[in-house]
Amino acid sequence: MSQEHQVAEEHAEAEVHTGHPTPLTYFKVAITLSVLTALEFGLFYLEWLSYGIIPVMGFLSAAKFLLVAMFYMHLRYDNVGISIFGRDVPIFSLMFVAGLIVAAGVVFALMALFAFFTGGA
Amino acid sequence: MAQATAHHGEHEPTTTGLNHRKMLMWAFLGSDCMFFGTLIATYLVYKNRSITGPLPEDVFSIPVTTVSTFVLLMSSMSMVLAYAALTRNSMKTFRIWLASTCILGATFVGFQVYEFTTFANYEHKVYCADVGVKELTPLKQQLAEKCGTEDEHNGVVEEVVGLTPRTNLFGSTFYTLTGFHGAHVTLGIVWLLSLFFLSFKKGMVTPEKNLDLDLAPLYWHFVDIVWIVIFTVVYLFGVFPGF
Amino acid sequence: MTTMAFPIPRPTHPTGIWNWITTIDHKKIGVLYGVTAFILFLTGGIEALLMRIQLAGPNQDIVSAEIFNQLFTMHGTTMIFLAIMPLSAAFFNFVIPLQIGARDVAFPRLNAFSYWTFLAGAIILKISWFTGGATNAGWFGYAPLTSVQQNPGTGIDYWIVSLQVLGIASLAASFNFLVTIINMRAPGMSFMRLPLFTWMTFITNILIVLAFPVITVALIELYFDRSFGMNFFNVARGGDPVLWQHLFWVFGHPEVYILILPAMGIVSEILPTFSKKPLFGYPAIVLAGAIIAFMGWMVWSHHMFTVGLGPIPVTVFTITTMAIAVPTGIKVFNWMGTMWGGSMDFKTPMLYAIGFVAMFTIGGISGVMHSMASSDAQQQDTYFIVAHIHYVLFGGAIFAIFAGIYYWFPKITGRMYSETLGKINFWITMVGFNLAFFPQHFLGLDGMPRRIYTYDASMGWNLWNGVSTAGVIILAIGILIFMHNIVKSWRKGELAGGDPWDGRTLEWSIPSPPPEYNFAEIPTVYDRDDWWARKRREVRRGVPVAGGSGEDEHHDIHLPQPSYWPLVVAIGLFIGGIGLVYPVGMYAISMVGVFIGTVAVYAWSFEPVNDPEEGEQAAH
Question: Which residue of C has its CA nearest to B2?
């Protein structure tokens, strides 16, 4: 391997792999995920919550989603920004969040168009 | 997927310093969000529009699905630990965690198969004495109508009302959504198994290549977070007739 | 670096046909895309010609109603998926790496895979003519016309499978180009220095990545309905055909921008070059493109105003549709501002580019007309819509593609086309196009529905239908002249040199045709329109401008070697796809396809890499 390649590789290593968490952090995240799932399961049987359960569950599942994306998928650590219109845009998050936002938008728009929120078909 | 297990020695310096393949993977995941988003949209739009039962509140067993959700979450943990082991160059730990990821993933798929067969052979009992006490699901109402007319039931109506993809809109949308998720998991297992066997071959799976090997974990965690959404939206919210 | 022992060696220096089959060079793949898509464009044109001949006069019986249904469906599907998209892809392939100063795309083999998969999808669609009737439910395949009860033949299934395969090709290509544009820019080439065509390609590929999964899911659901008796669009079981329309247009409207944004990019390259002025309002055009891409997701229901969505959705989508005309208008004014006061050189690419601006504006204005729901109720499903779509897609996209072909022809082939024939071609096409499609506005407002195979003489539509058909024949003559020009010039046109237009972007800084490695030395970029600026700098400093002249010295640049496997994976997809068309008893065929595909994917992954050092040893 030529020197140039090595340098490039080290550069990439330094850029991307600084500060990945330790296995202990991963383990803590796993514990949190389990607790959140247990919480979901427990709350599910509280009948007095009624429809109030929907925002609660929504919040819990969003929390799990974020934990996995941030820690396990390394979004918290791996983002390198590219400059568009003078702003640094973290590129991995951009790609993923673009998909997420458009998908969520389409889901909610279709639900609204099919009178999901107003009841009746 | 084709690029997935590619083991190139290309280490060209890139404009952003980020690995090409990893960037492709993120673009793919963004795209896959739209794929599952559309499936979920179809499911939600058609919720409460099935003409016949069974409906989610009839068939779902939240405890079972909670356990399978837990299994998949744990597989994500073992995946990330495998990756961490690889970056520290402890191949043995890497293989152990990788194998457990595969086993946990397979367990999840097993749960899904079990769930699908249970749903397809769903058998329902209505105790005529309970009729009218609480709100009944449409399916229970359907069955309960037989209570008064036929004496031979002895106060219990029992019928197999299996849920297949053809039964009703719920069946079509539910099996398509969760089936495609299961297919993603299965593909992930094949990919991880390939990496597992490759790791015995010298030079194929090495710490230097961990950037490329980051792809399979990314894919795996993505499938996991899709399930987090499905578990909440389809299962937990599913049993609310009004949602 | 360890090289794994692998039974089948990588092809090293294939020649002749194998050179093209195994190539992973973005320039050759671009040419393959272009030639294939142009042939498919001709087949779509022949389908259109047959329809126009049938409609030339009242009560004609040249083609039957059944064939007519197949003709308009295949014409639409062909032109959108097999002509305009891949012709744009041809430019992506050829031009993008050159414009950003790269030696190839990020994933050369994936690029070859995209092309072969596109070809597989195209063949699947086109063979349905010969297997018992092509698809006949309109290019948007509205449910329940596509249900197995209404449409029991295999035509719809071929259409479904073909679109899925084409979707895989488009997605693979888009991932590739996104990574290429983000990650392979030459040093100094920041995002705000990207050439406009690269910018528009970037935005287009974001749209493809996000839009195609939607149609994939819709087609899967339709396929499940047809093959496994599921209930997605089955009204009897509670399904809603309107959901198909929504899913289709959630994809379909971004798709419209997927077709037009590359065209806008091409025009934004040509206008400054032939006006000898920098592009007017570069950031505004970039931003307008990004806004179009974003707002493109908020307007889809304007295709469905007459479905009965209710007043609120109709109002919302009317407003968003009118709003999206604004960024498009910004672009039109910027193009005019670019030409204003420039020293314009009316070469053929410039004529086509100006033609694009004019025709696209007409199409855009008729588009704003039916953004108004009340007005749209009158125009829905009439020839007015046909006129509109042809003004934006033929007068728009195809004109820009012709402009692009003429513009980059010297770069691609190293030879100059005949300017005289080019100008004749432009004027005949321009006249034929307007004769063919402008009268359709009148027909539509007079109430002539689209997709009818004939009409009665008493309807009063005879004159304009006759004119329209005459226009199409003139248009066809124009296309023939174009083909003559291209074929003749490719063989023995004058040598063009590296920079025949006094170009602005990096592709003009290298010889024509470009060497396999593109850039002997990766350039460093200091300016937007870097090559233009570099020429001016060097002239000021009294240094002769060297670039652009052919330099034939041997450069020791190692490129990835060709590969068989992309083609084999595509063959697997083709066989598997054909199997899906006949689900009963033909699973075996699908399995063969899956098997071939899987083996090829593994072979692809383990294909030996041509190690730089090994290559050097072999060379010396």
Answer: C601
- Would an 8 Å CB–CB cutoff place B122 in contact with chain A? no
What is the model's pTM? Answer: 0.91
In this complex, do C217 and B39 lie within 8 Å of one another by their Cβ atoms?
Answer: yes
Whether B6 maps to a domain, the answer reads: no
Q: Which two tokens stand for residue B13?
A: 């310096």
In a domain, residue B9? The reply is no
Hey, which chains touch A, using 3+ CB pairs under 8 Å?
A: B, C
> pLDDT tens digits, residue range C242-288?
999 999 999 999 999 999 999 999 999 999 999 999 999 999 999 99
Q: Is the four-CA dihedral A8, A14, A16, A21 of positive or negative sign?
A: positive
Is the sign of the CA dihedral B148, B153, B155, B161 positive or negative? negative
Interchain proximity C569–B2, CB inside 8 Å: yes
> Which of A2, A82, A105 is facing C191, going by the closest CB pair?
A82
Among chain B residues, the shortest Cα distance to A96 is held by B30
* Contact list, C287 vs chain A (CB under 8 Å): 85
Q: Do residue B38 and residue B116 come from a single domain? A: yes
CA distances (Å), origin C185, targets A7, B116, C178, C198, C516: 19, 49, 11, 11, 18
User: Does residue C287 belong to the interface with chain A, where contact is any CB pair within 8 Å?
Assistant: yes
Q: How far apart are CA C232 and CA C243, in angstroms?
A: 9
The tokens describing C412, both together, are 């691609």
B101 and B142 fall within a common domain: no
pLDDT confidence band for C557 (50 / 70 / 90) = confident
Nearest-neighbour CA in chain C from B198: distance (Å): 11
Closest residue in A to B41 (Cα–Cα): A107
Decide if C612 and A2 are in contact by the 8 Å CB cutoff: yes
Q: Same structural domain for residues B32 and B140? A: no
Query: Which chain C residue is nearest to residue A90, measuring alpha carbons?
Result: C182
Question: Is the domain of B143 the same as that of B111?
Answer: no
Does C608 have pLDDT greater than 80?
Answer: no
Closest CA to B72 of B114, B112, B30, B31: B112
- Residue B158, classed as helix, strand or coil, is strand
Domain check: are B102 and B151 in the same one?
Answer: no
Reported as half-sphere exposure (CB side, CA atoms, 13 A), residue C215 has a value of 30
Domain annotation covers residue B10: no
Report the alpha-carbon distance of residue B39 to residue C23 in Å, rounded. Answer: 37
CA C298, C304, C310 angle in degrees (round to 5)?
A: 90
User: Which positions ≥6 away from A94 have C-beta within 8 Å?
Assistant: none
Q: Which domain holds residue B57?
A: 19-122+163-239
What are the domain boundaries of chain A?
1-77, 79-121
> Partners of C382 in the beta sheet?
C449
Nearest CB neighbour to B16, from listed C182, C218, C237: C182
Are C139 and C80 a contacting pair, CB within 8 Å? yes
Number of structural domains (chain B) is: 2
The residue count of chain B comes to 243
| A106 touching chain C per CB within 8 A | yes
Q: Which domains does chain C have, with CATH numbers?
A: 28-500 (1.20.210.10)
Q: Which of B1, B24, B52 should we substitute to test contact with C (largest number of C Cβ atoms within 10 Å)?
A: B24
In a domain, B69, yes or no: yes
Q: Are residues B185 and B97 in the same domain?
A: yes
What is the band of B243 on the pLDDT scale with cuts at 50, 70, 90?
low
pLDDT (tens digit per residue) in C199-237:
999 999 999 999 999 999 999 999 999 999 999 999 998
Residue C346 DSSP SS3:
coil
DSSP secondary structure letters along B167-221:
T-HHHHHHHHHHHHHHHHHHHHHHHHHHHHHHTTSTTTS-GGGTTGGGHHHHHHH
Any idea what the CATH number is for the domain that residue B218 is in? 1.20.120.80
Q: Which of C382, C390, C387, C377 is nearest to C452 (CA)?
A: C382
